[in-house]
Specification:
homodimer, alpha/beta, Rossmann fold, 6-stranded parallel sheet, 4-stranded parallel sheet, 11 helices, globular
Chain lengths: 264, 264
């Protein structure tokens, strides 16, 4: 079984990519809607939340965990791997950085939450695979609430796209990594603003591709696949978003996280 | 000692109102920045968080708890009072509703988070004090992220004010309750859009006024006042916001909440 988790509903873009390529795979997805968003919280808090999320999907049978959240991938991957040494973890940062490096070009743009951008992880990983590349980052903190409000094709969203992305367009980046799993919902508007020459990289797709290459057996079709979607805070809104994004009815189950160690 | 809590930094508007009227009072403020925002989460989750927040300020000496968060006031007040029967709780809903009722007028506007608006609490409480009044509500989910981004006087904020408030202006409300502690930061823009005739009610001021009337002894000046500001997730951003809002340097201390009962 494949485990996936995210700070909320954004990681369902990764589930969508999974279902496109392996509609009959077993998976368990956890969205931490009770504590969403992660992107403006501290590294320590994000790390703690990621450990609890991972524990949940592993407890429910995950043999591989896809960290479907850029913020958690940026801040918590080493700690996750250390805490669960027998489970492989794949984050969204490395596959996206590799995809950007593979495209060549000397300037790579990255957009993400404040926490992801402040971590500097994309710069580090892109330059590992493309040592000469210049990485230009921009935090886009309003994109998540705009997506969650469903304002995908709205005047306000267009203004914010222009405002956040103008420096990247002016810098003539050759590719742009969507470093947050909410952002694929704005992909066509972002592509339009950046122009056809800029290759926009959706981390949801590339992470599923990498996971399938490394762990093909987990993606084989099952006769009666177990496909579980859980949220720490269930609401009709997350079900509605999930159903519309995945194109089928979703009724999220209520996830109970294991209690944290005493912190009084 | 006075206790106050909020889902994050917004409740500092209540602390600001407190410091204006009683600069030498003892208080402890908790902002639950690790789980902010509350306004789009479920009633069960908001209730659970409010109990933990209240426990923290009571553990630190609070003899009165001001629930400086409209969402928690709307959803958790009965449970809080039941769980801590010896501590008085004052929420922001009742004082704001009473202030609106006292102004007269047959149409009262209320803006707040989705959770506050969906709870219907303002309608219920306003009509308790002004039985004939019509209450017109509107959820303004983007206001919180806009305020947290410091976009107080921004083109995008003006567009959203126009979009959210046009129905209230068209309905000719005579007063408008700012039913979220973040909204006072937009008060002048909101007042400008609604027009001079509309009385804009800031729940931060009215809740402090009511608390002072009911518990005057707690607001007396102390010689060496204990004034504690704590966050569940400390970051330079919350310190920066708090310092600018309170007009003095703030270094938030890291709050450790008591562990929840086992929920596996």
């Amino acid at each position: 079984m494949i485990g996936l988790f995210d700070s909320g509903v954004g990681g369902l873009t990764v589930v969508r990519a999974l279902l496109e390529k392996a509609p009959q795979a077993d998976f368990v997805y956890l969205g931490d809607t009770a504590r969403t968003p992660y992107g403006n919280k501290s590294p320590e808090t994000v790390e703690r939340y990621a450990l609890e999320d991972a524990e949940y999907v592993i407890r429910h049978g995950a043999e591989l965990v896809i960290v479907a959240c850029n913020t958690a991938s940026a801040l918590a991957l080493p700690k996750l791997q250390e805490s669960f040494p027998n489970i492989p973890f794949i984050g969204v940062v490395k596959p996206a950085a590799q995809a950007a490096a593979a495209l060549g070009g000397d300037k790579v743009g990255v957009i993400g939450t404040k926490a992801t951008v402040n971590s500097g992880i994309y710069e580090k990983v892109v330059r590992k695979y493309a040592p000469g590349a210049k990485v230009i980052q921009k935090a886009c903190p309003l994109f998540v609430p705009l997506v969650e409000e469903g304002m995908l094709d709205d005047q306000v969203t267009k203004i914010m796209i222009r405002r956040y992305l103008t420096p990247l367009r002016q810098a003539n980046v050759s590719s742009l990594i969507l470093g947050c799993t909410h952002y694929p919902f704005l992909k066509s508007s972002i592509q339009r603003f950046m122009g056809k020459k800029v290759k926009v990289i959706d981390s949801a797709n590339v992470v599923i591709q990498q996971a399938m290459e490394e762990y093909p057996a987990l993606f084989l079709p099952k006769q009666d696949p177990k496909q579980l979607i859980a949220f720490t805070d269930t609401s009709s809104n997350s079900d509605k978003l999930a159903s519309s994004w995945l194109g089928r009815p979703v009724k999220g189950i209520k996830a109970e996280l294991a209690p944290e160690p005493v912190r009084v």
